[in-house]
Write a structure and sequence with these properties.
- The protein has 127 residues and is of the alpha/beta class.
- The chain has a single domain, classed as 2,3-Dihydroxybiphenyl 1,2-Dioxygenase, domain 1 (Roll).
- The protein contains two helices and eight strands.
- Strand 3 and strand 4 form a beta hairpin.
- The longest helix is centred in the middle third of the chain and has 13 residues.
- It is globular and about 45 Å long.
- The protein starts with 6 loop residues before the first strand and ends with a strand.
- The relative contact order is 0.22.
Length: 127
């Protein structure tokens, strides 16, 4: 059973966020499923899973200090493709692609999106 219905991050530039996430989520098998007019967009494999929205209160979007959104990757190659696409789309590198010591098969790459949200892609399949 899934523990989340979806995850949402805020943006201050929806057009840039749409282009960024279209490129970055494609290697993970996720696509833009729907646009919500000028308010945001939704990505997922087949169902809404990840939302990027302008804040409903009209205030600027900010990122969580200490928060990370980690996407499941189908392979180690997909982790690398996610990270490469993110950097090419203007993301800041927050951790090179490679093994992570906290789990014997953890393989990940980290970045910050254009609004400063910390993202990761993880694969737990053995090499």
């Amino acid at each position: 059973m899934a523990i989340f219905t979806h995850v949402t991050v805020g943006t201050n530039d929806l057009a840039k966020a749409r282009a960024f996430y279209d490129a970055v989520l494609a290697p993970l098998g996720l696509k833009r499923l729907r646009d919500l007019g000028d308010n945001g967009s939704i990505w997922g494999a087949d169902a809404p899973e990840f939302f990027v929205l302008k804040p409903a209160n009209g205030q600027p979007a900010t990122h969580a200090n200490g928060g990370t959104i980690s996407f499941a990757a189908p392979s180690r190659a997909a982790v690398a493709a996610f990270h490469k696409a993110a950097l090419a789309a203007g993301a800041a590198d927050e951790g090179a692609v490679g093994p992570r010591s906290w789990h014997p098969t953890a393989y990940a790459g980290y970045c910050r999106d254009l609004d400063g949200n910390k993202l990761a892609a993880y694969c737990f399949k053995a090499e």
